[in-house]
């Protein structure tokens, strides 16, 4: 039975889920959330986003990747992959982002922190951190602290404090929730290889995503696309431009909007856009944070 929408009945076979490693990351939290939809699943970690997405060609049923952070914005490599290969978004989940600082001494001389985590906690680090040592991952930051005999600290995801090995550690000091923004959230999507779109469940609220490919650029093109959505009363949720990599000033547009791709208003809007540009339909998926205007 092939991978399909997560809202449908669970598989009787083991579903292979690929996500960004190593273990202990927010990506693992998201993957485990998606894994609950299946009766049996196996999570496999990959070192980069590209290799994670490419895992669909190597036996993975779905991949779980971050697509947007409320502070840092869109995750460009994921959006760019939608043009590079046929993919389908089948679900999304929002994971709260919280970081803590753990110390082996009350006055650490250095702090280990992953480069992205540093950007999420820049205010606290600017005010309190000693010398910062940049690491490749959050779990590496923690491992370096645990192996260090000199006064040191590590910036780690707060959920790691509840994990088995860490919960038993006796830290000299723990500073909870040093994240710059109290409501910091990363949105993750589950992807599969492109397949025929499942029929909408009329009891569910959907959002959809497309990429408008820059293959017929001319003055006013973006305005024409926006007018198509407006005329057919399709509410846009996000619009991101990504360079084509071919020429300055040429951009693809990643757009999310309310409604299912098979809703009449959505089809009418996209039909108008397809008269001018290629449109890659990325799928329709449920979410609970908004209501749809489409019927």
TrEMBL record:
One of its GO terms (cellular component) is cytoplasm. The record marks 186 as: Essential for prephenate dehydratase activity. GO terms for biological process: L-phenylalanine biosynthetic process. Its EC number is 4.2.1.51. It comes from the Bacteria. InterPro entries: ACT-like_dom_sf, ACT_dom, Chor_mutase/pphenate_deHydtase, Preph_deHydtase. This is prephenate dehydratase. The lineage of its organism: Bacteria, Pseudomonadati, Pseudomonadota, Gammaproteobacteria, Alteromonadales.
């Amino acid at each position: 039975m092939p991978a399909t929408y997560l809202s449908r009945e669970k598989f009787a076979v083991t579903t292979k889920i690929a996500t960004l490693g190593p273990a202990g990351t927010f990506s693992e939290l998201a993957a485990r959330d998606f894994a609950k939809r299946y009766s049996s699943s196996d999570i496999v970690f990959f070192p980069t986003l590209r290799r994670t997405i490419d895992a669909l060609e190597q036996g993975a049923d779905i991949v779980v990747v971050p697509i947007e952070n409320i502070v840092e914005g869109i995750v460009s490599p994921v959006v760019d992959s939608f043009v590079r290969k046929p993919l389908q978004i089948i679900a999304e989940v929002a994971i709260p982002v919280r970081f803590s600082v753990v110390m082996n001494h009350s006055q650490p001389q250095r702090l280990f922190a992953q480069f992205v985590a540093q950007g999420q906690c820049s205010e606290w680090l600017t005010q309190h951190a000693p010398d910062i040592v940049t690491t490749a991952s959050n779990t590496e930051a923690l491992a370096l602290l645990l192996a260090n005999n000199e006064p040191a600290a590590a910036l780690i995801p707060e959920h790691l404090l509840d994990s088995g090995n860490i919960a038993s550690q006796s830290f000299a000091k723990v500073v909870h929730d040093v994240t710059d923004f109290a409501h910091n959230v990363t949105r993750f999507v589950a992807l599969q290889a492109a397949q025929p779109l499942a029929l909408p469940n009329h009891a569910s609220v959907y959002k959809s995503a497309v990429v408008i490919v820059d293959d017929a650029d001319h003055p006013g093109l973006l305005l024409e696309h926006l007018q198509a959505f407006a005329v057919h009363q399709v509410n846009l949720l996000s619009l991101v431009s990504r360079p084509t990599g071919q020429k300055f000033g040429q951009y693809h547009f990643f757009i999310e909007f309310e409604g299912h791709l098979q809703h009449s208003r959505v089809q009418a809007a996209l039909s108008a856009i397809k008269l001018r540009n290629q449109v890659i339909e990325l799928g329709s998926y449920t979410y609970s944070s908004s209501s749809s205007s489409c019927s």
